[in-house]
Amino acid sequence: MPSQKTIVFVDFDGTLYQRDSLLDFLIFSVGKWRTYTSFILLFPEYLFSSNKAKVKNKWMKRLLQHKSELELHQVAQKFIPLLQEKLNSKVVTRIAEYQANKAEIVILSASLDLWIRPFCESNGYVCMATPAVYSNQIFSGFEVERNVKGKEKLKLAKAYCDFSKCETIAFGNEKSDLYILREVSLGYWVNGNQINLVS
Protein backbone atom coordinates (compact mmCIF):
# COMPACT_ATOMS: atom_id res chain seq x y z
CA MET A 1 0.00 0.00 0.00
CA PRO A 2 1.52 3.39 -0.99
CA SER A 3 2.60 5.68 1.83
CA GLN A 4 0.65 8.83 2.56
CA LYS A 5 1.66 12.02 0.81
CA THR A 6 3.21 14.54 3.21
CA ILE A 7 2.21 18.19 2.97
CA VAL A 8 4.02 20.81 5.06
CA PHE A 9 2.16 24.11 5.50
CA VAL A 10 4.39 26.99 6.53
CA ASP A 11 3.41 30.48 7.64
CA PHE A 12 5.73 33.16 6.28
CA ASP A 13 6.04 36.36 8.38
CA GLY A 14 7.42 35.62 11.83
CA THR A 15 7.74 31.90 11.08
CA LEU A 16 9.90 31.25 8.01
CA TYR A 17 10.76 34.93 7.56
CA GLN A 18 11.96 36.63 10.73
CA ARG A 19 10.44 40.04 10.01
CA ASP A 20 7.34 41.67 8.51
CA SER A 21 7.73 41.18 4.76
CA LEU A 22 5.04 43.75 3.92
CA LEU A 23 6.92 46.48 5.78
CA ASP A 24 10.23 45.40 4.27
CA PHE A 25 8.79 45.28 0.74
CA LEU A 26 7.32 48.78 1.05
CA ILE A 27 10.60 50.17 2.38
CA PHE A 28 12.45 48.46 -0.47
CA SER A 29 9.94 49.85 -3.02
CA VAL A 30 9.42 53.47 -1.94
CA GLY A 31 11.91 54.13 0.86
CA LYS A 32 11.81 54.21 4.64
CA TRP A 33 10.65 57.83 5.02
CA ARG A 34 7.57 57.51 2.78
CA THR A 35 6.66 54.12 4.26
CA TYR A 36 6.73 55.25 7.90
CA THR A 37 5.20 58.68 7.27
CA SER A 38 2.28 57.11 5.46
CA PHE A 39 1.72 54.60 8.25
CA ILE A 40 1.87 57.28 10.97
CA LEU A 41 -1.01 59.08 9.23
CA LEU A 42 -3.05 55.87 9.28
CA PHE A 43 -2.00 54.69 12.74
CA PRO A 44 -5.07 56.00 14.66
CA GLU A 45 -7.35 54.22 12.21
CA TYR A 46 -5.23 51.06 12.39
CA LEU A 47 -5.17 51.12 16.19
CA PHE A 48 -8.95 51.20 16.56
CA SER A 49 -9.94 49.20 13.48
CA SER A 50 -11.47 45.74 13.84
CA ASN A 51 -10.23 44.97 10.34
CA LYS A 52 -6.46 45.53 10.27
CA ALA A 53 -6.18 44.07 6.77
CA LYS A 54 -8.47 46.79 5.41
CA VAL A 55 -6.20 49.52 6.82
CA LYS A 56 -3.09 47.75 5.50
CA ASN A 57 -4.75 47.64 2.10
CA LYS A 58 -5.30 51.41 2.22
CA TRP A 59 -1.67 51.89 3.26
CA MET A 60 -0.36 49.84 0.35
CA LYS A 61 -2.62 51.58 -2.15
CA ARG A 62 -1.38 54.98 -1.05
CA LEU A 63 2.23 53.97 -1.56
CA LEU A 64 1.97 51.79 -4.67
CA GLN A 65 -1.18 52.97 -6.47
CA HIS A 66 0.62 54.44 -9.49
CA LYS A 67 2.94 51.50 -10.03
CA SER A 68 2.33 49.07 -12.88
CA GLU A 69 2.09 45.31 -12.48
CA LEU A 70 5.25 44.89 -14.57
CA GLU A 71 7.19 47.42 -12.46
CA LEU A 72 6.15 45.78 -9.19
CA HIS A 73 7.04 42.31 -10.45
CA GLN A 74 10.49 43.60 -11.35
CA VAL A 75 10.85 45.12 -7.87
CA ALA A 76 9.68 41.84 -6.30
CA GLN A 77 12.36 39.87 -8.18
CA LYS A 78 15.05 42.19 -6.82
CA PHE A 79 13.54 41.90 -3.33
CA ILE A 80 13.82 38.07 -3.15
CA PRO A 81 17.55 37.97 -2.19
CA LEU A 82 16.77 40.23 0.79
CA LEU A 83 14.04 37.83 1.91
CA GLN A 84 16.48 34.93 1.67
CA GLU A 85 18.91 36.72 3.99
CA LYS A 86 16.37 37.01 6.82
CA LEU A 87 14.93 33.52 6.97
CA ASN A 88 14.75 31.57 10.22
CA SER A 89 17.57 29.04 9.81
CA LYS A 90 15.93 26.56 12.21
CA VAL A 91 12.71 26.51 10.18
CA VAL A 92 14.63 26.39 6.89
CA THR A 93 16.51 23.30 8.14
CA ARG A 94 13.31 21.57 9.27
CA ILE A 95 11.44 22.09 6.02
CA ALA A 96 14.52 21.16 3.96
CA GLU A 97 14.53 17.81 5.76
CA TYR A 98 10.88 17.28 4.85
CA GLN A 99 11.53 18.39 1.28
CA ALA A 100 14.43 15.93 0.99
CA ASN A 101 11.95 13.18 1.93
CA LYS A 102 9.62 14.18 -0.94
CA ALA A 103 7.23 16.27 1.15
CA GLU A 104 5.46 19.15 -0.56
CA ILE A 105 6.09 22.56 1.03
CA VAL A 106 3.18 25.00 0.91
CA ILE A 107 3.63 28.60 2.00
CA LEU A 108 0.37 29.90 3.48
CA SER A 109 0.74 33.64 3.96
CA ALA A 110 -1.34 36.74 4.59
CA SER A 111 1.39 38.66 2.77
CA LEU A 112 0.87 39.35 -0.92
CA ASP A 113 1.57 36.87 -3.68
CA LEU A 114 3.41 39.75 -5.38
CA TRP A 115 6.62 38.81 -3.53
CA ILE A 116 5.65 35.49 -1.92
CA ARG A 117 5.09 33.74 -5.28
CA PRO A 118 8.53 34.50 -6.79
CA PHE A 119 10.11 33.54 -3.45
CA CYS A 120 8.27 30.20 -3.56
CA GLU A 121 9.18 29.60 -7.19
CA SER A 122 12.87 30.15 -6.40
CA ASN A 123 12.73 27.59 -3.58
CA GLY A 124 10.46 24.93 -5.05
CA TYR A 125 7.53 25.71 -2.75
CA VAL A 126 3.81 26.00 -3.50
CA CYS A 127 2.42 29.52 -2.97
CA MET A 128 -0.87 30.28 -1.23
CA ALA A 129 -0.74 33.98 -0.44
CA THR A 130 -3.16 36.91 -0.47
CA PRO A 131 -3.80 37.94 -4.10
CA ALA A 132 -2.69 41.38 -5.27
CA VAL A 133 -5.22 43.21 -7.44
CA TYR A 134 -4.57 45.29 -10.55
CA SER A 135 -6.83 47.61 -12.51
CA ASN A 136 -5.71 48.22 -16.09
CA GLN A 137 -2.35 46.70 -15.06
CA ILE A 138 -1.95 49.28 -12.27
CA PHE A 139 -1.77 48.16 -8.63
CA SER A 140 -5.02 48.69 -6.74
CA GLY A 141 -4.47 46.83 -3.46
CA PHE A 142 -5.34 43.29 -2.43
CA GLU A 143 -8.46 41.22 -1.86
CA VAL A 144 -9.17 41.88 1.82
CA GLU A 145 -11.84 39.18 1.97
CA ARG A 146 -9.27 36.64 0.72
CA ASN A 147 -6.61 37.57 3.27
CA VAL A 148 -4.85 34.27 4.01
CA LYS A 149 -5.03 34.34 7.80
CA GLY A 150 -6.64 32.35 10.61
CA LYS A 151 -9.67 30.33 9.50
CA GLU A 152 -9.08 31.28 5.86
CA LYS A 153 -5.63 29.67 6.09
CA LEU A 154 -7.14 26.43 7.41
CA LYS A 155 -9.86 26.52 4.73
CA LEU A 156 -7.26 26.81 1.95
CA ALA A 157 -5.15 24.05 3.45
CA LYS A 158 -8.12 21.66 3.58
CA ALA A 159 -9.06 22.57 0.02
CA TYR A 160 -5.50 21.76 -1.04
CA CYS A 161 -5.46 18.27 0.43
CA ASP A 162 -7.75 15.89 2.27
CA PHE A 163 -6.37 15.84 5.81
CA SER A 164 -7.63 12.28 6.29
CA LYS A 165 -5.60 11.05 3.31
CA CYS A 166 -2.36 13.03 3.79
CA GLU A 167 0.18 13.42 6.53
CA THR A 168 -0.10 17.12 7.32
CA ILE A 169 2.45 19.25 9.14
CA ALA A 170 2.30 22.98 9.85
CA PHE A 171 4.53 25.71 11.24
CA GLY A 172 3.14 28.98 12.63
CA ASN A 173 3.84 31.71 15.15
CA GLU A 174 0.61 33.62 15.84
CA LYS A 175 -2.61 32.85 17.71
CA SER A 176 -4.45 32.90 14.39
CA ASP A 177 -2.20 30.03 13.23
CA LEU A 178 -3.58 27.78 15.96
CA TYR A 179 -6.60 27.03 13.75
CA ILE A 180 -4.37 25.05 11.41
CA LEU A 181 -1.74 23.93 13.94
CA ARG A 182 -4.38 22.05 15.94
CA GLU A 183 -5.93 20.39 12.88
CA VAL A 184 -2.85 18.93 11.20
CA SER A 185 -1.04 15.69 12.11
CA LEU A 186 1.87 17.67 13.59
CA GLY A 187 1.66 21.38 14.39
CA TYR A 188 4.76 23.34 15.36
CA TRP A 189 4.79 26.67 17.18
CA VAL A 190 7.79 28.83 16.19
CA ASN A 191 9.20 31.35 18.65
CA GLY A 192 12.51 32.63 17.31
CA ASN A 193 14.95 29.69 17.41
CA GLN A 194 12.55 27.55 19.42
CA ILE A 195 10.23 25.15 17.61
CA ASN A 196 7.74 23.36 19.85
CA LEU A 197 5.10 20.79 19.11
CA VAL A 198 1.55 22.06 19.71
CA SER A 199 -0.40 19.74 21.98
Structure description:
The chain is α/β, with parallel strands linked by helices and 199 residues long. The protein has one domain: HAD superfamily/HAD-like (Rossmann fold, 3-Layer(aba) Sandwich), CATH 3.40.50.1000. Helices cover 47% and strands 24% of the residues. It is built from eight helices and eight strands. A six-stranded mixed β-sheet has the order 3-2-1-6-7-8, sandwiched between helices. The protein has a two-stranded antiparallel ribbon with strand order 4-5. A hairpin with a 2-residue loop joins strand 4 (132-135) and strand 5 (138-142). Helix 1 (21-30) packs across helix 2, helix 2 packs antiparallel against helix 3 (52-64) and helix 4 packs across helix 6 (113-123). The relative contact order is 0.19. The mean pLDDT is 94.
- The rounded Rg comes to 17 Å
Which structural class do you get from the secondary structure elements? Answer: alpha/beta
CATH fold naming:
Rossmann fold
Q: Beta-sheet strand percentage?
A: 15-25%
Shape: globular
CATH class: Alpha Beta
Distance between the termini: 30 Å
Report helical residue fraction: 40-55%
Largest sheet: 6 strands, mixed
Give the name of the CATH superfamily.
HAD superfamily/HAD-like
How many domains would you count in the coordinates?
Answer: 1
Low-confidence stretches: none
**Averaged pLDDT:** 94
Strand order of the largest sheet: 3-2-1-6-7-8
**In the CATH classification, which architecture applies?**
3-Layer(aba) Sandwich
* Record field, number of beta strands: 8
Number of helices: 8
Order of helices and strands: EHHHHHEHEEEHEHEE
